[in-house]
Design brief:
Strand content: 25-35%
Distance between the termini: 54 Å
Number of helices: 13
Largest sheet: 7 strands, antiparallel
Structural class: alpha+beta
CATH topology of the largest domain: FAD/NAD(P)-binding domain
Shape: globular
CATH class of the largest domain: Alpha Beta
């Protein structure tokens, strides 16, 4: 028996658990009007004669963790789980990874630091690693090189199996537990049936969760639903719209633009709230389609967005209002809409406006946000008299609990990205890609930590003890959590006596458990405090002496990569020019040596990363660990936030 997926507008459970457990959910869509909205009705497809069936090769696979969706949330989830020993299968329906950040869309990654407006809040962990690698290896801002960096990080990770150009098309559910997903790669005529302990929906549109029957919501809630002042008086199914971006290139000679006949026509009065300030990259406010179904109407939305993008460029080139555009020509037009919103899953907690604006710190926090509540009119350019966005700004940070990252009714289903459990209002802050990425790292870490637990029910696993262990694991992997320091009992450095050859900021701060400088405006838990050791000159030496000799196998170092500025890959010259350099950051330690009781155990000549882990081939017994900083990438002092010893 097949039934429509349940969501906030259709909460009746029309399937028995036994019926829901049968085979895969395969559907044929038939439009039915319900309350004025088109809603899919699911029926079994007609069986095809065997002679008409494609000869797809069947593969039955088993793994620890399946991640559906290869945007930044999915990539970070897969990497985080794999680095902690889990076998991961990452399924991506496109030929490249990165989602809206990829060369297919070319949207720059933003997050809690609000384009540098909240200095010091930049996301760390895997997201920072990717940003730093890209800045050094891709100073010329080539999006294809960014694609390849993500591909490299995933493809060369031995614990990840990557399926590109592969679509999730079904799921097998036993009671409230997801047992298996069905995926198809049409390019190679392969069909995969993949069993796993945990699953994650990082698809944005929520394809896996819907196949599994996870509770979800579409549209904007009424004020009365969660008591949100920024919500609408009456609920509807409208969402934020989608955009297609363009890039331009300047030439030595004038470049004409002959507009196709099918474009939209624009006049100056259409842009009173949508300024055209440059020609190399535009424009996020090419937005449309939230007033219709961002899923079922996506083809219509794509065509209309192409009409809009080319129509705006026609206005730029041919209206006479922008004579400075004479030497500019279109260089690239996106072929895919960059989608902002569709489904949002429902977890044990739904993040709300009150959580965001109140700066709430949850006991089960695993990520944080800081982007404004950034609401857009669903119709986009169709309402030129309305601003393209209405932001509600705040100076603080807020936390996001694990309860927003897993399903309330499917026991072993995580999710991360723009489809997490949040109201429409709160989602307008959490939806940005760097915030999505750190949520991905959180669920990947959880899936790995709980791989061998007695239960695969995330609701049962979310005990205070397990949450605390998860939080400490995230901190160890350079994630940041509000008002939560390192308290790892296995970290020998916490008991060490710390000294330095010189100190503009005390050496003892490398073991205070905080890995960034704090600002008092971030919340009542924060203060204007420096949490790094900084020398007065170079070379400089930091020494940690243990109470007694110990067998040391790992040393973790966290350097300064200048969180005071945004670090972004963008085709926008404006954002690039005001961001941190697309190179190794000047504050970062470049060359250093590690010594244990005077013996060199590691030596690095050209570091540019924030987090470095040195794993010794065999444990070495010693008492005094020294970090000799020989050079940085520019500043005349060593800066180190943390040293851990295991």
């Amino acid at each position: 028996m097949f039934a429509a997926p349940r969501n906030a507008y259709d909460t009746a459970d029309t399937e028995t658990p036994a019926a829901r457990a049968t085979s895969f959910r395969v559907a044929r869509l038939s439009p039915i009007l319900v309350n004025g909205f088109t809603k899919p009705s699911f029926e079994p497809p007609p069986r095809l004669p065997q002679s008409l069936s494609m000869p797809y090769t069947q593969h039955v696979l088993e793994t620890d963790f399946v991640v559906a969706g290869g945007g930044l949330a999915g990539v970070c989830a897969a990497i985080a789980a794999a680095r902690r020993g889990s076998r991961v299968i990452l399924i991506q329906d496109r030929s490249v990874l990165g989602g809206n950040a990829s060369s297919e869309i070319k949207m720059h990654i933003v997050g809690a630091d609000c384009h540098g407006g909240k200095p010091g809040t930049r996301e760390s962990g895997i997201m920072e690693e990717l940003r730093l690698e890209d800045a050094v290896r891709n100073p010329h801002r080539c999006y294809s090189q960014w694609d390849l960096l993500l591909y490299e990080k995933v493809k060369l990770e031995p614990n990840i199996t990557l399926f590109l150009d592969t679509d999730v098309v079904g799921a097998s559910v036993d009671g409230d537990t997801l047992r298996c997903v069905r995926a198809v790669r049409n390019l190679t005529e392969d069909e995969f049936h993949i069993r796993a302990r945990f699953f994650a929906d990082c698809t944005g549109d929520g394809r896996l969760g819907v196949e599994a029957g996870a509770d979800h919501h579409v549209g904007r809630e009424a004020k009365s639903h969660y008591g949100e002042s920024l919500a609408r008086d009456v609920a509807d199914r409208h969402t934020l719209g989608s955009s297609i971006l363009i890039t331009g290139r300047k030439y030595d000679t004038p470049q004409p633009f002959i507009a196709p006949s099918w474009i939209r026509k624009f006049k100056k009065e259409h842009f009173k709230h949508r300024p055209i300030n440059s020609y190399e990259y535009g424009y996020w406010w090419f937005e449309w389609g939230g007033q219709i179904d961002s899923l079922k109407d996506n083809e219509s939305i794509r065509h209309e967005l192409l009409r809009i993008a080319l129509g705006v460029w026609d206005y730029v080139k041919n209206s006479g209002d922008h004579p400075a555009s004479a030497h500019w020509a279109l260089d690239w037009v996106g072929a895919l809409p960059g989608k902002r919103e569709s489904r949002r899953f429902l977890g044990p907690h739904v993040l709300t406006e009150q959580d965001v604006l109140g700066g709430r710190v949850f006991a089960d926090q695993v990520a944080y946000g800081g982007w404004a509540i950034d609401l857009h009119p669903p119709s986009g350019v169709d309402v030129p008299d309305e601003p393209p966005f209405t932001p509600t700004h705040f100076k603080h940070l807020y936390s996001i609990p694990l309860g927003c990252y897993h399903s309330r009714n499917i026991a072993n289903l995580f999710f991360a990205g723009r489809n997490i459990s949040a109201s429409h209002v709160a989602f307008a802050s959490t939806r940005v890609m760097a915030t999505c990425a750190i949520g991905g790292q959180a669920i990947g870490t959880a899936a790995a930590l709980w791989r061998d637990a007695d239960s695969s029910d995330i609701r049962q696993l979310s005990t205070p003890a397990n949450i605390s262990a998860l939080q400490q694991a995230l901190l160890k992997d350079d994630a940041y959590l509000l008002h939560l320091p390192n308290s790892d009992p296995a970290d020998l450095a916490r008991a060490a006596t710390v000294t330095a050859s010189s100190a503009a900021h005390p050496a003892t701060r490398v073991t205070d458990g905080i890995t960034r400088d704090l600002k008092s405006v971030w919340g009542p838990w924060s203060s204007d405090t420096v949490h790094r050791w900084e020398s007065t000159s170079l070379p400089a030496t930091l020494a940690l002496e243990l109470p007694a000799p110990a067998a040391i196998r790992e040393v973790h170092l966290t350097f300064d990569t200048h969180f005071e500025k945004e670090l972004v890959l963008s085709m926008s010259d404006h954002h690039t020019n005001k961001s941190a350099p697309r190179a190794a950051q000047p504050e970062t330690v470049k060359a250093y040596r590690l010594l244990l009781d005077g013996q060199v155990i590691a030596e690095i000549a050209d570091n540019y990363l924030r987090k470095r882990i040195h794993v010794l081939p065999t444990p070495v017994t010693g008492r005094k660990l020294e970090l000799e900083v020989l050079a940085t990438h520019g500043t005349p002092a060593a800066r180190v936030f943390e040293v851990r010893i295991y």
